[in-house]
Design brief:
Elements lengths: L11 H16 L5 H15 L5 E8 L2 E9 L5 E3 L3 H9 L3 E3 L17 E9 L2 E10 L7 H17 L7
Helix pairs in contact: 1-2, 1-4
């Protein structure tokens, strides 16, 4: 059993540094991509407040296919040409959206979502997935959150075997 301890009184930079140490301990000794993706999604949902969805979409040709996640039933496939996840896949840059309802091509998998953070997962210069986090709270994600979660994603990437095939 792994116990996650979160001290929300810490400044965000310290909080994410602490979370990164815990994440690395959680993933130590396990390299299976699907196992680590599932653990990572659960870790994020358990560690950060005010989230209603956290998980992966894996890149397959010109679309994203649902992978391990925690949350309500989700959209199974997202074309690169649509939505916040598609924008992250196309641009290979993190998308931080304060109000998803202001995004014309937003794909609403959960009507309760109001803000979103999507981080492209790039391995050896190639898009492998996106990590998507939704919140029912508008303006939920700050620049500090973005930087902290990008660091956590980097630790997940480093711990996982990306030669895994379906």
């Amino acid at each position: 059993m792994f116990n996650i301890e979160v001290d929300n009184s810490l400044p965000k930079a310290e909080l994410y540094q602490d979370l990164n140490q815990q994440l690395q301990a959680l993933l130590t000794g396990e390299t299976d991509l699907i196992c680590n993706a599932a653990q990572f999604s659960a870790f994020i949902m358990q560690s950060l407040p005010e989230l209603n969805w956290a998980g992966f979409y894996f890149a397959r040709q010109e679309e994203l296919v649902l992978g391990p996640y925690v949350g309500k039933v989700a959209c199974t496939r997202i074309p690169f040409q649509r939505g916040v996840c598609g924008a992250a896949a196309r641009s290979l840059t993190t998308q931080r959206v304060d109000d998803v309802h202001a995004v014309p091509d937003h794909i609403a998998c959960d009507a309760a979502s109001n803000s979103e953070l999507v981080i492209p997962v790039i391995v050896n210069g190639e898009l492998k997935a996106v990590f998507d986090i939704d919140s029912p709270v508008p303006h939920r994600f700050t620049q500090d959150d973005q930087q902290g979660i990008e660091t956590l994603v980097a630790s997940f990437v480093e711990a996982s075997d990306w030669n895994w095939k379906v």
